[in-house]
Amino acid sequence: MKKLRSLQSDFEKSQRNEVDRIRKQYTRNSPTEDERKEQNEVDRIRKQKKKKQSVRYRAAQSCENVKVHCLGSMNVECTACAGLHFSEEKVKGKSTFNDCCSHGNCLLEELPVIPDELQNLL
Ligand SMILES: [Zn+2]
Asked: In terms of residue numbers, what domain contains 49?
């Protein structure tokens, strides 16, 4: 049998308030029919994309569709730092490269000579 609110103890009131709070929170957070439809559509599109990606992954596992790409030899030297590059990496009109020394802007000091004991380990 339900007690009258005025006759409830503090503990019972706090329990009732907590249940009300949770119920309101749940009601506020539950999506409307339109929100559910929209979320279903988003999920459907996400699944389609995932399915397409998995097809791409399987294509990458096959060696039948692989096109040979040859970069040639890595024998083009940067005139600023002597780093070696492929000829495809050349920057038009320059003999230096960006990837190694930023066209000579970032040059490192020479490494110190290491002792023979360490040199023998290399
Ligand atoms: Zn360089």
From this structure: 35-66
Are residues 43 and 62 part of one domain? yes
Residue 56: the pLDDT is: 65
pTM here is 0.40
Q: How far apart are alpha carbons 90 and 73 in whole angstroms?
A: 13
Interval between CA 119 and ligand 1 midpoint (Å): 26
Near ion ligand 1, which residues have CB within 5 Å?
78, 80-81, 83, 100-101
- In this prediction, the residues of the chain whose per-residue pLDDT falls under 70 are 1-3, 55-60
How high is the pLDDT of residue 73?
Answer: 94
CA of 98 to the centre of ligand 1 (A): 7
Q: What Rg, from alpha-carbon coordinates, does the chain have?
A: 35
Please give the pLDDT value at position 24.
83
User: Count of residues for the chain?
Assistant: 122
Q: What is the DSSP letter of 49?
A: H
Residue 8 included in any domain: no
What is the CA(68)–ligand 1 centre distance, in A?
A: 28
